[in-house]
Amino acid sequence: MLRLFLLVASVAQLLVFRANAQQNAPVNSAPLAPNAPADRPVSVAVADDSEAEAALAAFEQHIAPAIKKARATLPQAKKRFLQGLPSGQAFYVTTRISDPNGPYEQVFVRVKQWQGTQVQGFIASQLDVVKTYQQNQLITFSASDVFDWTISRPDGSEEGNFVGKLIDAGNQ
Hints:
The protein is α+β, with helices and mostly antiparallel strands. The chain is 34% helix and 23% strand. The chain is built from four helices and six strands, in the order αααββββββα. Residues 1-21 form the signal peptide.
């Protein structure tokens, strides 16, 4: 029961990116703008395994349209990153990382390089559930594991972040 609760609760980690990444950005990255939109973390409390499975399924169904839109626009965002973003802009992708025993967290990764089907970058999110990784750790993963992207600008505005914006809209 605890494992499934952590799995569902870890979905909330998707939303804690901006504040933590700004203060703990990798040395080679520009900080996020102080006026970047603030995320509002979400958590799910469940009583048993069946409730956890249902909550996770409902969450996945809720974010599916945003993931579809993000993946449809990802090739253009990737192309812009590979051509070089303007000074002060940063390219992040959202993926999931997990411990060997299964719990996962959705995390923002500041992309360092993208070669073929492999993405390499620094974990920008604060981790609360997954223990085998740490914030600012350099990781490499398959491009097929990317389900959202964000370009952060120095004026605090952003492009992409379709999943985060969908969740934020439901929390207002």
